[in-house]
Amino acid sequence: MKLAEALAERADATRRVEQLRSRIVGSARYQEGEEPAENAAELLVEVGHVLDRLEVLIRAINRTNTTAEVEPGTTVTDALARRDTLRLRHSVVTSSADAAAGREHGGFGRQLRSELKMFSALPVADLRSQADVLARDIRAVDVLIQRANWEVDLIE
Of 27, 30, 32, 38, which is the most buried if we count CB atoms within 10 A? Predict the structure, then answer.
């Protein structure tokens, strides 16, 4: 099994757990004289099996991510950490540029000459350029991760 297949199965299992949780909660109590929509005890057993498989998948994915390299000296785990921090950095830079440009107030400037004039404390154009570079870097790291996902065999 390829890493990407395990990731897809993990996502499906996670969705399945949430669906089963919702069904269990909906069937956990019922009114006297009525029958519950579903057997909550059977659903609990089923969610237990799904969670067991999910644990196996998560362990295998984590083992694989810590050993598989996306490029020499960089594991998938390293690349994931890099991508996550790049995304956070991009978010901070973009938010800073938006705030400096006055976007947090709907972009409205002064309406009367007597109102206080607002000035930008940050170089908006430079921040936008930084955000563009960060977005390009995020895409590059994401391509490395996606390539590894489809090329690397899952360590079971």
Answer: 27
Please state the length of the chain: 156
Tokens of 78: 């390293």
The pTM for the full model equals 0.83
pLDDT of 80-137, one tens digit each? Answer: 999 999 999 999 999 999 999 987 655 555 566 667 888 899 999 999 999 999 999 9
Angstrom CA distances, 28 to 21, 41, 42, 44, 51, stand at: 10, 8, 11, 10, 19
Give the span between the Cα atoms of 47 and 65, in whole angstroms. Answer: 26
The predicted-structure confidence for 11-28, as pLDDT tens digits, reads as follows 999 999 999 999 999 999
- What Å distances lie between residue 119 and 40, 101, 112, 129, 131, CA to CA? 60, 9, 16, 20, 21
Distance CA 156, CA 23 (A): 31
